Amino acid sequence: MSECGANYNRLNDEIRSLCKDAGRDESECTLIAVSKTKPVDLIKDAYAAGCRDFGENYVQELVDKIHQLPGDIRWHMIGHLQTNKVKYIVGKTYLIHSVDSIKLAREIGKISVKNGVISDILLEVNVAKEESKFGFLPEELEGAVREMSSIEGISIRGLMTSAPICDDPEENRVYFRNMKQLSIDIKKQNIDNIHMDILSMGMSGDYETAVQEGASYVRIGTAIFGARDYSDHK
Ligand SMILES: *Cc1c(COP(=O)(O)O)cnc(C)c1O
Q1: Which of 115, 113, 123, 117 is nearest to 152 (CA)?
Q2: Protein residue with its CA nearest to atom 15 in ligand 1
Q3: What are the distances in angstroms from CA 107 to CA 13, 49, 63, 98, 112?
Q4: What is the C-alpha separation between 94 and 82, in angstroms, rounded?
Q5: Could you tell me the distance, in angstroms and rounded to a whole number, from the CA of residue 52 to the centre of ligand 1?
Q6: Could you tell which of 8, 34, 76 is best to mutate to test the pocket of ligand 1, judged by most ligand atoms within 8 Å of the CB?
């Protein structure tokens, strides 16, 4: 077994047992292997261990990798997406996690209608209100959701966040709990085309608490593939 494969299996087992301990079904949380900047060979290692969900941040890299890898992979777009690049990924990704503006949602809708598909999307929330981060602020989310509910070609499936970088996963528990509450509050409004059945949160540094607080996807890169080197990237 490759190192990435072993890491993937160990994390997958851990996530299952975290679910059980939290009184959740094992199937309620899926591990996405975040493969940005990592070569196709390492993705194949994780694939051989059973991983079918991979996350990428950059459109060009994502498109290149899709062509080189098996067709049963579910590709998750998790990075900031510019409206002018939407056309390259619609119909190719399983889920777009990082929808951070109404304008972007409209563009995804427009291209999806043109291609005869419905794109599943998540809305990115800047839950800790960090200056450096993209995403809707918690207090503007409900208004934005109402505005987006009429957009054709998209299905709003839930929320995504990247919590602050932390030394102790416990520090982010409050943010994950707030995310869960936000999704419950919006679900209760019963707005057309708004489902709120997916919560994407938790990374290498804080996935334990995210699973305990209700994550349906955790996005893990470093703990599977090792540290990233951006020096020869773009
Ligand atoms: C890179 C990235 C991850 C993975 O982060 P790790 O700390 O390496 O696990 C998860 N989510 C997003 C949005 C990312 O950009």
Answers
A1: 113
A2: 79
A3: 38, 36, 19, 13, 8
A4: 18
A5: 17
A6: 34
- Say which residues have a Cβ less than 8 Å from residue 89's Cβ, sequence separation at least 6: 59, 62, 63, 77, 81, 96
Cα 111 to the chain's mean position, in Å? 21
Structure tokens at 15: 């996530």
Q: What is the pLDDT along the chain (234 residues), one digit of tens a residue?
A: 899 999 999 999 999 999 999 999 999 999 999 999 999 999 999 999 999 999 999 999 999 999 999 999 999 999 999 999 999 999 999 999 999 999 999 999 999 999 999 999 999 999 999 999 999 999 999 999 999 999 999 999 999 999 999 999 999 999 999 999 999 999 999 999 999 999 999 999 999 999 999 999 999 999 999 999 887 665
CB distance 141 to 101 below 8 Å? no
Atom of ligand 1 nearest to the CA of 97: 13
CA dist., res. 224 & res. 9, Å (int)? 9
Pocket of ligand 1 from Cβ distances under 6 Å? 34, 36, 57, 78-79, 162, 203-205, 219-223
Q: How far apart are the first and last CA of the chain?
A: 31
CA 117/CA 199 separation, integer angstroms: 23
CA of 157 to the centre of ligand 1 (A): 20
